Amino acid sequence: MALADVKPALLVLADGTVFRGRAFGATGTAIGEVVFNTGMTGYQEVLTDPSYRGQIITFTYPELGNTGVNDEDEESAQPHVRGVVARNLCRTPSNWRMQRTLDAYLQENSIPGIYGIDTRALTRILRSSGAMNGAISNTVLDADELLRKVQAAPCMEGLNLVNEVTTKDIYEWSDPTDGIWEYRPTDAVGGGSPLTVVAIDFGVKRNILRRLASYGCRVIVVPAGTPPEDILKYEPDGIFLSNGPGDPAVVGDGIATTRALLAADKPIFGICMGHQIVGLSLGGETFKLKFGHRGLNQPCGLSQHVEITSQNHGFALREESLGPDVEITHLNLNDRTVAGLRHKTLPIFSVQYHPEASPGPHDADYLFAQFVSMMRDRTAENLSSSATAR
Ligand SMILES: NC(=O)CC[C@H](N)C(=O)O
After folding, report:
1. What residues does ligand 1 touch, defined as CB less than 6 Å away?
2. Per residue in 121-141, pLDDT tens?
3. CATH number of the domain located at residue range(s) 3-151 in this protein
4. Which of 80, 313, 330, 354 is catalytic?
């Protein structure tokens, strides 16, 4: 983009705050929940993570687009964010894997962006007042007109966005993490036949599927509304509940299906929305956090052991709503909200953060190994009990 082509753009928050900056990406207006992500890397993974559906993302890292965009780092088939807010846009991106610029990518995908605004000031507003709806536009430059559009938009609380992102068709995933990037310990996958995992897709990120495949799973991905009896027809060794966008409390079919699957006594592992759905199916409640956790350095643990984790969520489980069968395994150490749980008697565990770390640190990758060993132990137990019964 030549400097002469730079067009003005506007960001208006629901509280009436106005930021004036410059346009990049698509021509048009985007309305959604304005949130901030503090990660220093991985903007492409963020843009394509289906959990960001319906949101305008402010990147606090001060320069965006330095490494362009490539086909391999897509976390799903398309970007899901509504709009992008940046301090500065890199005009000379360069990377050996780059296929196009961030600007061209956002144009192709009809996503408007605004840059050249004070993202620190914006983030301070979102931290003190909480995440709120807003709009960015390079076609409507009248702040009052844009504010009226923002005020007419639905709020994130109570919004079910899963149907917009879940797979329409059932498919099998067997691609592991590419060998040049693989980081699992070489002894982490024991021998034995591949384990069958049914993944319920609330908006799954590809790197979760890759990590499951890397740990020796054959993954069957099913739409979010799949009834429990259809899931059990695959005779899965375990069930995975994925991440996803919107308010978890209104994903009624997912919660009912998970509740029904508890009775099947199969290992269940949930990530982010999957974790919230595990908690809700066990009788817990969720609530909306003031400004959420979005970034790559969120510390989680209890005492002694701390994991630095990748996160992207706006809702959380209410600790006091979880019954005596639930053990809290991790807290978010910044605000002490629930970050991980396990059931005391059933083979179920879940985390609020993203152990697949795409992007982010790999501290929590052991959770995939934990799921696999839970499934292997279960299979061994079943085999020995059927041998005794004979
Ligand atoms: N990454 C996710 O799965 C997010 C879960 C949920 N939409 C939230 O914002 O809390």
Report:
1. 51, 243-246, 248, 272-273, 312-315
2. 999 999 999 999 999 999 999
3. 3.50.30.20
4. 354
